[in-house]
Amino acid sequence: MARQLDSKDAHMTISVINILRRILECGMKMYGDKKASNLFAHALISNGGVTKLEKLEEETNNDLIYKACLSLLESFYELEIS
Questions:
Q1: C-alpha 16: how far from its chain's center?
Q2: What is the 3-class SS of 2-48, one letter each residue?
Q3: Which pLDDT score, from 0 to 100, does residue 18 have?
Q4: Is 72 among the domain residues?
Q5: What is the pLDDT of residue 33?
Q6: What is the pLDDT of residue 75?
Q7: What is the pTM of this model?
Q8: How many structural domains are present in the chain?
Q9: Does residue 2 lie in a domain region?
Q10: What letters, b where the CB count within 10 A reaches 16 and e where it falls short, cover 26-53?
Q11: Which of 27, 32, 17, 7 is nearest to 64 (CA)?
């Protein structure tokens, strides 16, 4: 799924981000509300998905993609503020 974040099609990218959000929400329901216990969130980290989301957020010119990435990252991950 994370590989689809490399799509040049903005609609595809936003759809993938929305699907990832739904998967992570299921993880919250299954494993509890604590971010640290969401196995789906850990899987997205380990397969490089979070890194791709962060890169996409930084590099996109599309406001909808930027907002979708930021919202997902803020909702499910501890952000490092530099």
A1: 9
A2: HHHHHCCCHHHHHHHHHHHHHHHHHHHHHHCCCHHHCHHHHHHHHCC
A3: 97
A4: yes
A5: 67
A6: 92
A7: 0.87
A8: 1
A9: no
A10: ebbeebeeebeebebbeebeeeebbebb
A11: 17
The confidence score (pLDDT) of residue 31 equals 80
What whole-number distance in Å separates Cα of residue 35 and Cα of residue 60? Answer: 26
Domain coverage including residue 61: 9-76
- Which long-range CB contacts under 8 A does 34-37 form with residues at least 24 apart? 35/76, 35/77, 35/78
Query: Is residue 41 situated within a structural domain?
Result: yes
Averaged in consecutive runs of 10 residues, what is the pLDDT profile of the chain (82 residues)?
Answer: 89 96 93 76 93 95 96 86 50
**Rounded to 10 degrees, what is the CA torsion of 26, 79, 67, 60?**
-120
